[in-house]
């Protein structure tokens, strides 16, 4: 397949490298020193599942250089999604599939508001990886997984073909029976731990070791569940326990990308995560006091990182 990875950070770098390793034509959209390093030295993947050096790697900052694109996997930050959608709109052909692997519960809605909905599939990923250095991706934990599906949950030929491509690249793949359920399951997990990690400056293990903080995490998750229910998302009753089983299975020192961004003074996905829960809670009449506390406490630093304070 002719695949574009839009955003070559921890997520895009990992999945793109594996897809290229399997023989697909992969073009990485990157910028700045990351782009320069990949063009010069290739893309170095360090992984608990095996290292790989993709050299040469096809990388550019101009998607118009890529022709006849089959699939675009968007792997930037959630707050960049609308801008990316506007950028890719002119290069889409009749059959191009676009999937956001970003954190968030409404990414497919953002995409569909800018590009033709026929191109859009719902999606998400699960992996703990980050940019260790320019051109170097380090995958440290979790079985890298991509979950995706048609927005109407039908098993189309294009969805089945993409599933085969991902599986052949050694990527754990789930073609969802209910993509909204899958998106909100991931969203509940990531929104529960990320901003609280930023607020406490603590790792997953450190937060879980504190009964007080763990209880706040549970309250955060319960509010997210109530918002999802109000939106009509079909989440199972044991969803919170299952997500905490995952959190507790990760290495003690695990941190989330939102947390790392805020701690490093960078713009983060705060608005797409806890901010969205606060907004949806108000729209749907669901009380979200813990998410409000987390969101509004971190908001001044978020504004400062964006030059808005």
Automatic annotation (TrEMBL):
It catalyses: (R)-pantoate + NADP(+) = 2-dehydropantoate + NADPH + H(+). Residues 30-48 form the WH2 domain. Pathway: Cofactor biosynthesis; (R)-pantothenate biosynthesis; (R)-pantoate from 3-methyl-2-oxobutanoate: step 2/2. Keywords: NADP, Oxidoreductase, Pantothenate biosynthesis. It comes from the Bacteria. Belongs to the ketopantoate reductase family. This is 2-dehydropantoate 2-reductase. It comes from Lutibacter holmesii. The lineage of its organism: Bacteria, Pseudomonadati, Bacteroidota, Flavobacteriia, Flavobacteriales.
């Amino acid at each position: 397949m002719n695949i574009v990875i839009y955003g070559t950070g921890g997520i895009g770098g990992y999945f793109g490298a594996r897809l290229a390793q399997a023989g697909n034509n992969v073009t990485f959209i990157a910028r700045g020193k990351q782009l320069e390093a990949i063009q010069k030295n290739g893309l170095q993947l360090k992984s608990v599942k095996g290292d790989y050096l993709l050299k040469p790697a096809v990388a550019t900052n101009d998607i118009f250089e890529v022709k006849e694109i089959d699939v675009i996997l968007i792997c930037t930050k959630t707050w960049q999604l609308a801008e990316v959608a506007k950028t890719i709109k002119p290069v889409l052909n009749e059959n191009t599939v676009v999937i956001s692997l970003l954190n968030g519960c409404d990414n497919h809605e953002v995409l569909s508001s800018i590009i033709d909905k026929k191109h859009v599939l719902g999606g998400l990923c699960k992996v703990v990886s980050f940019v260790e250095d320019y051109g170097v991706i380090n995958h440290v934990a979790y079985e890298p997984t991509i979950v995706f599906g048609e927005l109407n949950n039908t098993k189309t030929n294009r969805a089945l073909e993409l599933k085969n491509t991902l599986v052949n690249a050694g990527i754990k793949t789930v073609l969802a029976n209910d993509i909204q359920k899958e998106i909100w399951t991931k969203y509940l997990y990531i929104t529960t731990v990320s901003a609280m990690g930023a607020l406490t400056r603590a790792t997953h293990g450190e937060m879980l070791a504190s009964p007080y903080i763990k209880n706040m995490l549970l309250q955060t998750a319960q509010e997210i569940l109530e918002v999802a229910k109000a939106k009509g998302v079909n989440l199972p009753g044991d969803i919170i326990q299952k997500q905490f089983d995952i959190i507790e299975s990760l290495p003690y020192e695990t941190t989330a990308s939102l947390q790392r961004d805020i701690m490093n003074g960078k713009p983060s996905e705060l608005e797409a995560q806890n901010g969205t829960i606060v907004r949806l809670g108000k729209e749907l009449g669901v009380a979200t006091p813990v998410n409000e506390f987390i969101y509004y406490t971190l908001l001044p630093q978020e504004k400062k990182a964006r030059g808005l304070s």
